[in-house]
UniProtKB/TrEMBL annotation:
Signal peptide stretch: 1-17
Protein name as annotated: Amidase domain-containing protein
Start and end residues of each Amidase domain: 43-444
Organism expressing this protein natively: Deinandra increscens subsp. villosa
Pfam families per record: Amidase (PF01425)
Keywords: Signal
Keyword Transport recorded: no
InterPro entries from the UniProt entry: Amidase_dom, AS_sf
Domain of life: Eukaryota
Taxonomic classification: Eukaryota, Viridiplantae, Streptophyta, Embryophyta, Tracheophyta
SUPFAM superfamilies: Amidase signature (AS) enzymes
Amino acid sequence: MIPPIFLLILLLKTVNSVDFTIQEATIDEIQSAFKQNKLTSKDLVEIYIREVRKLNPIYRAVIELNPDAVRQAEKADQERKDKARKSRLTRLHGIPVLLKDNIATKDKLNTTAGSYALLKSVVPRDAGVVKKLRESGAIILGKASLSEWANYRSSNAPSGWNARAKQAVNPYVATLDPCGSSTGSAISVAANMVTVSLGTETDGSILCPSSSNSVVGIKPTLGLTSRAGVIPITPKQDTVGPMGRTVTDAVYVLDVIAGFDKYDAVATRKASKYVPKGGYLKHLNAGGLKGKRLGIMRAYPYFGFANDTEILNMFEKHFDILRHNGAILVENLEIINLNQIISSMFNGEDIAFSAEFKLALNEYLKELVASPVRSLADVIAFNKKYADLEKIEEYPQDLFLAAEKTNGIGKLEKEALLNMTKASKYGFEKLMYDNKLDALVTPYSHGSSVLAIGGYPGISVPAGYDKNGGPYGICFGGLKGAEPTLIEIAYGFEQATKFRKPPSIKNQF
């Protein structure tokens, strides 16, 4: 008979002999490997750098790697050895993060929105969310690719295209639209080139790529996360949010980046009241679906189900899962005058975007320490000159040209903004309050515009793969400040299903 002490030693040797696997590694698994001395932050960063160099020529999800990432990792390792102050050793300590290339970093990385017009520009400081990441001990691995200028340059450029990195590719099905503007942020996480990432959303650009690339994406309430240092489209809708392979990982990031920032004081002060005492982690509740009232709008094509038998059949099993785990489904919901409300939303959005984009971008460019361009007019001229000099045929900059023609917020723009506010109040908000809903459920990222225009939060969770292998998500949207409830719902669904699987590189050949 082997003495118990020798059995324990044998067990420990067996555990420590197991090599750490980066594939699908969660933040908790990585932190556990750190503690067990199976992995260092430096190891982790070097693994991801190798993965980026191997996979990025295929996926084009990363624009730049941070030349200081290894040094930052070594610092994190030393802090862990020295048992640095407790506040520094958060769950993100030593964890690599990729940032969408419209989020400013005051380091050797560029911040260009994928455009050569901003190459070598110098930002005055880290973006507010980057400052919080650095304070948590996270490592900035690099900048993720995106749809150029966050998809607000051309009305016909494909999702995921920019001048610097060219066309991003969906890692599951190469011909599938990677969707939205935070394409590189989603693809890099999906393909295990980084642990987590940050994206931005003005209208669908976190929720859509998350759905299309089988990752979890959180689009926060407007102002819950700072937009300071983010190349803007409109302050009325811009927001920054996390992407991860699990709800838990995305929530770890949200917990760090949410809160007040003096450089985005008005919006973040207003939204700070929504941050729960003690943060969001306590809402990672496996039984989070129990008792939740979830709305489904079957009758309206805009919300993704009506008259589409294939989508309905795909999601009937999801409805059963929700019911089986204690959710109360409130079906066949209606919004009075929905067509008129949607028309007001989209017409108002187009008008407001043009005027607000010009104002916001000009302000951002003027604050740069150094820049080849100082106004939207300069950017337009640069793009034309660049295309002529390089003899290339780029996508037209029609959205830029329309915005340049605007002259601030006048009567037309004020009316458009008012119509959007009314549409949110008498559409989504009324629907939620009248039916006492905790969340509205939509397939893919359908209905993301409703959340975007009203500044409401949403979470996309992997929900499966279609007959061609293409991923799709399920989206849970709620009223302002509903993140705790949405996290409970999303986590409950994820734990009940665990649909996500990594892409296979062979699918690209």
